[in-house]
């Protein structure tokens, strides 16, 4: 099992992407998708050294919902900022200390920060102790750090780093 | 197609187009590179996202079977937009571009 | 109604393309131009999707997907070139 199916989640995603690409659901395409999902992880095994660990699907689902909600709400805020007076903006570079350790969790956090409008990940410190982010309008940098830590980092830590 | 779905589709398309435009306005209007980076990476992503969802809905309703492959482009954009934004921000920091915000001390140059 | 809305949307996205083009020509720095190129890709995808809706054909989807992929790879390669002075290390 471990030998022939090293990354079950990746296999599932690959099969699903194939079905979406051909845009039809038939037995033949299902078999082809399953075959791709089986073979591609085997051929690219050395590219994925660590198996993915995901706990608490309920938290994961809630996190995805939260991020989608934040993307939509915050987009309206950024739209207002862009159409407003550019001179009134208070952009700032902010350092966010990191509690996450694994690659996947850090990159997901960085992507989430980039997707939720108003903030942007600029750099990850070489020793992974903090992220440097740029905020479009941050009169109060401390509250931005606080929001990122409680809203996004805590659930990510729970999902990816509890095993 | 009944009027309610037509209204929904029109709303989605207009929202998408307006957000795409706002993203580009941000790109043209804001005053330093780092703030300009915000407009296109987000507003455009959401704008194109809702256009693609409208397209998926339209083709699912008018043609036999459901059409979900637009979702793939949306997903791809949502995954790649942050990555390219991050890389561009990194490049700008490296080149020490002019910034309105106070620049951080560069203590961890690679 | 849908057709009117589609024409308006095409006009809005074209305006967005023009603004991006202006930033592409104006610069002033290299990252600005790369960002403008990246936005150009995204706006082109929007225009293609709208065109597909206007023509009532879903064949434009493949073109949109290709533009999305090549645009991403292009942006990454250019940004990497700016940071490292090299694309393949």
How does the SSE layout of this entry go?
The complex is a heterotrimer of chains A (163), B (110) and C (89).
Chain A: H1 8-22, H2 27-43, H3 57-83, E1 92-97, H4 103-115, E2 119-124, E3 130-135, H5 141-160
Antiparallel strand pairs in A: 1-3, 2-3
Chain B: H1 3-29, H2 33-62, H3 69-95
Chain C: H1 2-26, H2 30-55, H3 60-84
Overview of the molecule:
- The complex is a heterotrimer of chains A (163), B (110) and C (89).
- Chain A is mainly alpha-helical and 163 residues long.
- Helices cover 56% and strands 11% of the residues of chain A.
- A three-stranded antiparallel β-sheet of chain A has the order 1-3-2, with helices on one face.
- Chain A is globular.
- Chain A starts with 7 loop residues before the first helix and ends with a helix.
- By secondary structure, chain B is mostly helical.
- Chain B has one domain.
- Chain C contains three helices and no strands.
- The model of chain C has no long low-confidence stretch (mean pLDDT 87).
- Chains in contact: A-B, B-C.
């Amino acid at each position: 099992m471990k030998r022939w199916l090293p990354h079950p989640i990746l296999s599932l995603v690959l099969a699903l992407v194939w079905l979406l690409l051909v845009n039809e659901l038939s037995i033949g395409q299902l078999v082809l998708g399953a075959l791709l999902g089986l073979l591609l992880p085997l051929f690219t095994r050395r590219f994925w050294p660590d198996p993915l660990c995901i706990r608490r699907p309920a938290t994961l689902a809630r996190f995805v919902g939260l991020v989608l909600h934040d993307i939509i709400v915050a987009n309206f805020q950024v739209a207002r900022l862009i159409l407003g007076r550019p001179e009134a903006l208070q952009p700032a570079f902010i350092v966010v200390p990191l509690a996450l350790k694994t690659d996947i969790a850090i990159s997901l956090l960085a992507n989430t920060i980039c997707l939720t409008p108003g903030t942007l990940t600029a750099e990850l410190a070489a020793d992974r102790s903090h992220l440097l982010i740029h905020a479009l309008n941050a009169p109060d940098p401390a509250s931005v750090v606080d929001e990122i830590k409680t809203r996004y980092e805590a659930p990510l830590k729970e999902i990816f780093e509890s095993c | 197609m009944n009027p309610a779905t037509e209204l929904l589709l029109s709303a989605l398309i207009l929202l998408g187009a307006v957000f795409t435009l706002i993203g580009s306005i941000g790109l043209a209007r804001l005053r330093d590179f780092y703030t300009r980076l915000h407009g296109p990476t987000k507003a455009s992503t959401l704008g194109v996202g809702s256009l693609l969802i409208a397209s998926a809905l339209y083709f699912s309703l008018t043609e036999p079977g459901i059409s979900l492959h637009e979702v793939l482009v949306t997903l791809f954009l949502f995954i790649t937009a942050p990555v390219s934004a991050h890389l561009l921000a990194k490049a700008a920091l490296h080149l020490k571009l002019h910034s309105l915000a106070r620049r951080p001390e560069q203590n961890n140059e690679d | 109604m849908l057709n009117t809305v589609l024409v308006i949307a095409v006009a809005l996205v074209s305006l967005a393309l023009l603004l991006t083009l202006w930033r592409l020509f104006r610069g002033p720095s290299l990252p600005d131009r790369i960002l403008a190129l990246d936005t150009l890709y995204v706006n082109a995808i929007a225009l293609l999707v709208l065109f597909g809706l206007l023509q009532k054909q879903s064949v434009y989807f493949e073109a949109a997907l290709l533009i999305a992929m090549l645009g991403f790879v292009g942006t990454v390669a250019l940004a990497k070139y700016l940071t490292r002075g090299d694309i393949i290390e």
